[in-house]
Amino acid sequence: MELRHFRYVIAVAEELNFGRAAERLNMSQPPLSHQIRLLEEELGVKLFERTKRRVQLTEAGIRLVEEARKVLAQVDRAAKVTSTTTGNLGQLTIAMSWERTVMVESLRIFGERYSQVHVDLQRLPHAQLIRGLVEQRFDVGFTLGMPAREPTLIYETLAWEPLVVGLPPDHRLVDAERLQLRALAKERYIMFERDRNPGLYDEIIAVCRNAGFSLNAMHEVDSVDSGMALVAAGLGIALFPTAVEDLHRDGIVFRQLDARALKMESVMVYRRGVPSDVLRVFLDIVRRVNKKPDIRRHNA
C-alpha cells in the first residue's frame, strides 16, 4: 500500500463517483477503478459497494478513509516542517471554491513581497474546502457563505454579490436591461448541484417559491464553467455570481436581475486561534485590498 492509494480512496469516498474522482486526480477512470480493486484484493476487504446508479462506502471503507486522512495530514505536516528547515520562508496553502478579484489581487501583492513563500492553491467544492480547513490541510479558504458554519472556523465577509442571469445571445429576454424574477418562471433552468453550494441552492428555490413559482430545472452542473457552457449551448438559462461577467465567454449574455434578495455572500475562512506569521500577513493584505474602492465596487 502506497500514499497514492490513500489519495485514490479519499477521492472516491468524497466524490462517490469514479469518473469525478478520476478527473480530480488528473487520471482516467479505468486505471483508478483498477487500482481500487487491487487495493481491495490486497487488504482482503471490499471498500466500496458499486451499482450502476451509485457508489457507497462499506464499513471497512469508512475506517480506511479515516485513517488515510490522518496519515496524509501527518505527511503534510512533516513536509511543512522540512521546508522551513531547508531555507524556505514558509508555505501558504489556499483553497477556493470561487475565484474572486480580491483574492487574485492579494496573491499578486503577497507574491511580490514574499517571493520565497511557497503558495499552494487548490479549487475545491465548498464542503471539501471546509473539511480541509477543519482538518488543517489548508490555511485559508475563499468560498460562499452558508447558513451552517463550523464553530472552529472564522468567517470574514468580503462582499455581498448580486446574482445575474446568463442567457444565450438569441434568447427572447436579452432585449431587457433588467429582468423580473417571474420572467424565469417558464424558462428551462440550469441548476448548480446542491452539494456544491447548498446555501445558494436553497436560497434560489425559496426566493422563487415566494415569488409564486418553481424553477423548471432541466439540467444540473457542478461548476460555473459547466453552467456557462450549457447556457452557451442554448440548453437553458442560469443564475451566476456577478463576477462571471469578467470572464467574457462567447455565446452568453448577462442581464441584471431585479431581485435584491438574491445575493451571494463571499467569505474568507480560516481556523480559530493564533495564525502563523505567513497567514497573518496574507490575511492583513486581503483586508487592505478589500477596502480599496475599485475592488469594493468590483465585489459589490
Q: What does this protein structure show overall?
A:
Helix 5 links the parallel strand 3 (91-96) and strand 4 (118-123). Strands 3, 4, 5, 6, 7, 10, 11 and 12 form an 8-stranded mixed sheet that branches. The chain has a two-stranded antiparallel sheet with strand order 1-2. The chain has a two-stranded parallel sheet with strand order 8-9. It folds into 3 domains: 3-77, Winged helix-like DNA-binding domain superfamily/Winged helix DNA-binding domain (Arc Repressor Mutant, subunit A); 88-158 and 266-299, D-Maltodextrin-Binding Protein, domain 2; 160-264, 3-Layer(aba) Sandwich (D-Maltodextrin-Binding Protein, domain 2). It is α/β, with parallel strands linked by helices. Helices cover 42% and strands 24% of the residues. The chain is globular. The chain has helices spanning 3-15, 18-24, 29-43, 59-84, 101-113, 126-134, 198-210, 224-232, 277-291, 293-299, and strands spanning 48-50, 55-57, 91-96, 118-123, 140-144, 153-167, 178-180, 188-192, 216-221, 238-241, 253-258, 263-271.
Give the termini separation: 49 Å
CATH class of the largest domain: Alpha Beta
Describe the main β-sheet briefly.
8 strands, mixed
The shape, in one word, is globular
Name of the CATH superfamily of the largest domain: Periplasmic binding protein-like II
Compute the number of structural domains: 3
Kindly state the mean pLDDT as a whole number?
84
The number of helices is: 10
Q: Return the CATH topology of the largest domain.
A: D-Maltodextrin-Binding Protein, domain 2
What is the topological layout?
Blueprint: H1 3-15, H2 18-24, H3 29-43, E1 48-50, E2 55-57, H4 59-84, E3 91-96, H5 101-113, E4 118-123, H6 126-134, E5 140-144, E6 153-167, E7 178-180, E8 188-192, H7 198-210, E9 216-221, H8 224-232, E10 238-241, E11 253-258, E12 263-271, H9 277-291, H10 293-299
Parallel strand pairs: 3-4, 3-5, 7-11, 8-9
Antiparallel strand pairs: 1-2, 5-12, 6-10, 6-11, 6-12
Helix pairs in contact: 1-2, 1-4, 5-9
